[in-house]
Fold this protein.
Amino acid sequence: MQLHLSTWPEVETYLQSSTGIIIPIGSTEQHGPTGLIGTDAICAEAIAQGVGEETGALVAPTINVGMALHHLGFPGSISLRPSTLIQVILDSLTSLARAGFTHFYLINGHGGNIATVKAAFAELYYQLEILNISQASRVRCQLDNWFMARSVYQLAKELYGDQEGSHATPSEVALTQFVYPQSIKHAPLAPNVAKGYGIYGATQFRQSYPDGRMGSNPALATPEHGQRFYEAAVQEMSENYRRFLQEN
Amino acid sequence: MQLHLSTWPEVETYLQSSTGIIIPIGSTEQHGPTGLIGTDAICAEAIAQGVGEETGALVAPTINVGMALHHLGFPGSISLRPSTLIQVILDSLTSLARAGFTHFYLINGHGGNIATVKAAFAELYYQLEILNISQASRVRCQLDNWFMARSVYQLAKELYGDQEGSHATPSEVALTQFVYPQSIKHAPLAPNVAKGYGIYGATQFRQSYPDGRMGSNPALATPEHGQRFYEAAVQEMSENYRRFLQEN
Amino acid sequence: MQLHLSTWPEVETYLQSSTGIIIPIGSTEQHGPTGLIGTDAICAEAIAQGVGEETGALVAPTINVGMALHHLGFPGSISLRPSTLIQVILDSLTSLARAGFTHFYLINGHGGNIATVKAAFAELYYQLEILNISQASRVRCQLDNWFMARSVYQLAKELYGDQEGSHATPSEVALTQFVYPQSIKHAPLAPNVAKGYGIYGATQFRQSYPDGRMGSNPALATPEHGQRFYEAAVQEMSENYRRFLQEN
Amino acid sequence: MQLHLSTWPEVETYLQSSTGIIIPIGSTEQHGPTGLIGTDAICAEAIAQGVGEETGALVAPTINVGMALHHLGFPGSISLRPSTLIQVILDSLTSLARAGFTHFYLINGHGGNIATVKAAFAELYYQLEILNISQASRVRCQLDNWFMARSVYQLAKELYGDQEGSHATPSEVALTQFVYPQSIKHAPLAPNVAKGYGIYGATQFRQSYPDGRMGSNPALATPEHGQRFYEAAVQEMSENYRRFLQEN
Amino acid sequence: MQLHLSTWPEVETYLQSSTGIIIPIGSTEQHGPTGLIGTDAICAEAIAQGVGEETGALVAPTINVGMALHHLGFPGSISLRPSTLIQVILDSLTSLARAGFTHFYLINGHGGNIATVKAAFAELYYQLEILNISQASRVRCQLDNWFMARSVYQLAKELYGDQEGSHATPSEVALTQFVYPQSIKHAPLAPNVAKGYGIYGATQFRQSYPDGRMGSNPALATPEHGQRFYEAAVQEMSENYRRFLQEN
Amino acid sequence: MQLHLSTWPEVETYLQSSTGIIIPIGSTEQHGPTGLIGTDAICAEAIAQGVGEETGALVAPTINVGMALHHLGFPGSISLRPSTLIQVILDSLTSLARAGFTHFYLINGHGGNIATVKAAFAELYYQLEILNISQASRVRCQLDNWFMARSVYQLAKELYGDQEGSHATPSEVALTQFVYPQSIKHAPLAPNVAKGYGIYGATQFRQSYPDGRMGSNPALATPEHGQRFYEAAVQEMSENYRRFLQEN
């Protein structure tokens, strides 16, 4: 059940049986010469819809711009500052919490979001309590990264070994190929991909990783792999979501 | 050309021939008993993609949560505060401006966004200039509301007359039916729909407009109407976009 | 009854018969070679006092610096950023709302304020409700632009036709001449005044409108015209205010 | 020379001979049973105009709402939060500094503003330098409280002794009587006025000072006294301003 | 009793007999060629611990970075912007107020903090009241500058006369020598120390005061003097604290 | 070399040979019935000083209040909101970066700080670049948690096994006992310590972990253990710091 395709009376009815909601969060940032700029949002959204179908959970619209300041050296990347993203999450989850939602399960497609989102959760609990929002102390948030799900991680290791890398990875590219087979891109990929550098500012990132990849070989990706990642992630995260709903 | 389905080298190439970009902005808010909560984002996104195809413009991901504080009395609505939305627009457009984009054309699906977006534009020009961002003084932003396009407005009058109303209108519902025919909703609609009240806070709004509609009869909507609205909007706004690119 | 010329016990008494208040809002910005920098504040303040006398309403001090970022290319202009002006309005109206005021009628002298003020109203309703301020849901705000009042607009068309223009207009200059006859300015005005350009940042504005006027011929203004504008605005806006007080 | 009664070319000319500007800052807050709510703004504005005439300095519009949070327990009081007032001062002075003004002389009518304004000055210098605003390192700000001018202070002691008190004082009331003789208020004043309590929040302030006065007897004020205060303040602060302009 | 060396049950017990707390606040900024960068924090912390021992009061951790923007021209200085420091104080004191503390006594070692801290107090009272924090109206804050204590001031005059100066003073240097005798520094001090200039931005400050001292001769300081300052300050401020606790 | 015990000329000299600096960051929060409220700051500070001695690095004053919102249900805890802590880090590191420091090594004592500090780093790089701060693109930040150092972790496992737990752990208590042997606390500890619950808001945290411990048995701690933890951490983190300085 997708929020943007539902009516408010349907949401009202839903709240009678569940106060949980799934929120996909991605990013709009370069993913190397062949990866889609929307990769992280596409992956999070697709999996969130899959988990929503599997569990009957309501799925909110995707937060498709996240914290990607270090990718701003590549054209097409868009980022919020962490302090802005915190406010976006506070406002959005407060809207839902006041309507009765208590369990917020964020399916995340981008490592760069993790720190900011966790900071936002802490500020949310505080804000809800200090404002005396009804049921504030019952609110629970969880961030779950699809690419760190155990089954996904193992599959990536099995299929790609060291060539999985850590950005513009074949696993995420494969998943976007499964979702958007008409948008599979081809471009020459230098065999000696940069890896092992730290991640600091945008200038340093582009200097260290000149084509945007971090140790990855996305040429290994196929839509069939993408389907396997999708299925693994949906199954594992559906279980995670069901378990999360038990948190009281 | 959609940004989230492009690679950064493709964007780099695009910038050589155009520095314009289209950004759809909608809202996630109640649209009466039968309107989809994502109506405003769905409409803006569909039209933006149409304009993108028509003009060859790059289309950014949709800002799908906007300024809908007055709808928060209905479950499922999500809103940013205006001061948060201003920061979102500042951060996002600054990301793109630093990469070389100069013309930002926002296709808007929600009247409640207008004031905040215009305020954000003013703050953006200022911020870019005071930060000495390269080409700051060449940046131009325009907000265009699809539902106020002349051809759209006339078609709505012709098809629905006074029953068009001003929220959860048959025209926007029709457009969502065209885009998502599998999500057409049915629910009893009281014949005496509320209208004519002001819009203030969330409590007042729900008291004044108890089922969420403002003077509208969305039961008149059909997917075929939706297609006509879509085509009219795409054509008119494509011309608007081309004209906007001439603004120097 | 002017707030700054009243005592707190007088305000306490006033609140027993009315919870409405008028707040003039202007701007401090260039108005062409002959227009006063305080034009927008002067006009809003004078009319607000007139409406106050006509209706017995309390009139707050004028917000004399507004949103004029695009005028900052001309010396003497002062502007708040939209995000600052939103906080000013939030703080000010919250002060009054906690004391029992419920109806805030802003008489506006500057088009550039409109978007930001409307954004602020939305944030105010939200803030009052989420903070559980007493009577929050009864608060109503309205922004009324004196220069868009029907009788004013018609008079301007009748007196000046196309030479009214849209900034540093003869109508607003006339009104300031009526209020401050000792400050009537003379300067050569090029006959070919710039017009028709968009309004973006400060650099672009000054390039497009080098003497600060937008299509206007303020040389047509006279103090007598100013009096007619004043009287028309006071009468029409007094009616508007009375009607606004009925909004519940 | 008053900014709001000047044109931008007049300001351009003024800047060729002086880069100093006077900014009156007051407050909108209760001043006891007979003091005007606008007392602090009225006093600052009148003296600023006097100093402007005496020295030929440009005088900006009055900041008429300041930091008066502790007076919010009395109806009619309006206050900004310190963090808002800081932004107002940053934005306003940055506007002027970018146009070439370097010396900002604030004539203050309200003790409650002092801390916040001084904090804002510090933040302003920093902001101008970090933004690389032209001439940033030459900007100088000074806050001068008219009621603490030596000649004023001595006159108040001479005329009122201990009955001067520290809020709603006869000296400031006298000055408003001189400026607005038609707005002299009369009300019974309890002989045992509260005094000696600290100033904390709004609730405490009203409990400690139930009629709003702090140890003062404003019944002693006369318009003639007001004129003497006015003249003393204008003379002394004109000298202060001239000296301040020498600060390089 | 020091907070950082206590357990929460000990704090819970403490609150049963007292709701007062002492918070030292200093700065991290240059103090001339021989003064320690931590001087202000060291002095405030040492005296706060002394007062804590004398009065049995709980002493919070030291706020060791304050408002020192004008010292940023000298390496090693660290400063918060005033608007940041206000938030630090709001968050910290709100944490404690919600736990039951009502009397906050800040022992300050740095003149540059005064304005910002006082602004923060005003905002705190307001925030606690508007958020309906329990006991909000009973909260009292006081800022006490050790270097302005009468006994300290007199001792400094007696020992150093005009060579006390106003920054990097022998009195504060002496106190740090008493606390950290192993960190006594020696460096040549030009006999003609700069004095009498205003304090504006960082660039101006360093130009006016090239070695960081303001009219002082810290070579006069000795650890024995430091002990006398310490004892005078502890005694006087202990009395101040006890008196402050009586404020209701 | 400790910053607060240094003079600015010493820092100037230091910068000629190194642009690295160590910043300890802790927290002020409950640590169970026997743990010190300052535990996290004490540990971070002690280890930072040790690493400073070992490597010759400059050590900044400790950030002793961090992100501990979830501990606010226990008296004595103090926390910044994440959005405040981000500003503190931005301001502090910007101060140092403008003076020439490029490598910021934060030694962290509190898990709750991690997300916010990492978010702040990202925002810092961005802010420095967008403000065109000299050497902005060379700035590098690293957060290193002493309790997660491999040698520390292994020692804790070896000494305490499962009774290490995850808050108010014997390892951190031991370290504070080594640093402050005079502040070793004794209190009855229930054998059945709570564990395994999530961490959400303050109310939930106290309900889940009623005495503040999370699965730990701090009664196992001894000062001798503390010394071993100290030495292991100092050695490992000194190597980490040296390696970090190589990051270019």
User: Anything to note?
Assistant: The two ends of chain F are 23 Å apart (CA to CA). Chain F touches chain E through 55 residues (CB under 8 Å).
